[in-house]
Amino acid sequence: MLDRMFRSMRSFWLGFAAASRGGSVLELPGVYAALTPAMPDRSVVNCVVYDDAAALESSLDRLAAAYEEAGLPAWTVWVHESDDRAQRALAAAGHVLDGEPMGQDLDLADVAAPGGPDLDLVAQPSPVDFDPIVTAAYGWTGFGAAIPEFPPEFHAYAARGDDGRAAACLGIWDVDGDAHVQLVGTLPEARGKGLATRLLARALLDARERGCTTSSLQATAMGWPVYTRLGYRDRGRVQMWERRKPAPTA
Predict the structure, then answer these.
(1) What are 240's strand-pairing partners?
(2) Which helix (H) or strand (E) holds 134?
(3) Calpha distance 236→95 (Å, rounded)
(4) Which of 53, 112, 228, 238 has its CA 20 to 30 A from that of 62?
(5) Collapsing DSSP states into helix, strand and coil, what is residue 90?
(6) Which of 196, 193, 132 is nearest to 159 (CA)?
(7) Do residues 63 and 75 touch, judged by C-beta distance below 8 A?
(8) How far apart, in whole angstroms, are the C-alpha atoms of residue 190 and residue 118?
(9) Smallest Cα–Cα separation from 83: which of 246, 236, 247, 244?
């Protein structure tokens, strides 16, 4: 399941970069990098996923040069908490541990229909619909401008709040039977009403109908209770090792 989760992460982040304005991907032996110039200060969207620590270690100089050439001051490498060799190599190269979301997975056979009132769904939500929610949840300003349109692999969901505006969103990225969950967020004023829980349950049932059998994600501290209530199981921390160019001094 860990291998499946990392494959899904790799597919999503490379696809996200390719769909962004001016974005590109760099594939080295066993190492895959997403370059997203439209969001240059967000290391999470300028990220690296790798197959094994040896391949990563031998590619760090080439990766640093690629991000430098693209004018991207910050990038991160996703590392499972058990990979001591990768952690040592990244620390030696100047990366710092920036976050540790929990890797989780779920058997879609266990997903039940959501309870509560019916959701007021946005039909075919766009990046513009996601923009205020993603900004509030993640601080990613300019998301709607960075992504002209979602790629076909991304199944976008958004639900309206009491005021009729899109208040919660998420996306499912299908990868070889895995429904990979990304961009889950709720506007602050709409939190505590179960919108994200019901929206995710709806999205997972749709994924099961499409033939997916599992789901994977990386849970923040805020999201972890939501996912755990739906039946997601912990698979260890997925660390974010960031390298950020110091800001120029006056």
Answers:
(1) 78, 99
(2) helix 127-138
(3) 21
(4) 238
(5) helix
(6) 196
(7) yes
(8) 15
(9) 236
Short-list 14, 9, 23, 11, CA closest to 147? 23
Q: Which of 219, 247, 221 is nearest to 233 (CA)?
A: 219
DSSP state for residue 189 in the 8-state scheme? G
pLDDT for the residue numbered 141: 87
Could you tell me which of 226, 227, 217, 157 has the C-alpha nearest to residue 192? 226
- What is the residue whose two structure tokens read 């001016």? 22
Rounded CA separation 204/211 (Å):
11
Q: What is the pLDDT of residues 156-187, one digit of tens each?
A: 999 999 999 999 999 999 999 999 999 999 99
Q: Are 74 and 44 in contact (CB under 8 A)?
A: no
Rounded to whole angstroms, how far apart are CA atoms 226 and 244?
31
4, with CB counted inside 10 A (0-12, 13-18, 19+), is middle
Q: Report the SS3 class of residue 235.
A: strand
The DSSP call for residue 109 is G
- The per-residue DSSP string of 26-79 comes to EEETTEEEEE-TTSTT-GGGSEEEES-HHHHHHHHHHHHHHHHHTT--EEEEEE
78-112 per-position pLDDT tens digit: 999 999 999 999 999 999 999 999 999 999 999 98
